[in-house]
């Protein structure tokens, strides 16, 4: 199922290069991206901002992990990324998407579409 409208994506990634490239890919596909470097900044943004999709790395510096973000914001579509296998993250629920690192443009957009359609 294709996404019928641009999405507002909160991108949470501590690696500057990955955050920048991922933002460019998502914006190039027509989505609105709010990129932050960690869970603490994501929580602060969510105090006033509204996202359709939370796309978060699992392991990041700061008090709030990607796992905590995903579990706190079940009102959003959640897409999680990690360099570790999905099986290593037993806390993931069926309605959360998972995208293994490294990923490319096609895999990213397909995973975003799948999680947004759920």
Total of helices: 4
Strand content: 15-25%
**Rg, Cα atoms, Å:** 13 Å
User: Secondary-structure element order, as H and E?
Assistant: EHEHEHEEH
The major β-sheet equals:
5 strands, parallel
Choose one word for the global shape. Answer: globular
Secondary-structure content class: alpha/beta
Share of helical residues? 25-40%
The averaged pLDDT comes out at 91
- Named at the architecture level, the CATH assignment is 3-Layer(aba) Sandwich
State the fourth-level CATH superfamily.
Response regulator
Q: Please, could you describe this protein's structure?
A:
The chain is an alpha/beta fold and 118 residues long. The chain has a single domain, classed as Rossmann fold. It is 35% helix and 21% strand. Strand 1 (8-12), helix 1 (16-28) and strand 2 form a beta-alpha-beta unit. The longest helix has 13 residues, at 16-28. It is globular and about 30 Å long. 31% of the residues are buried.
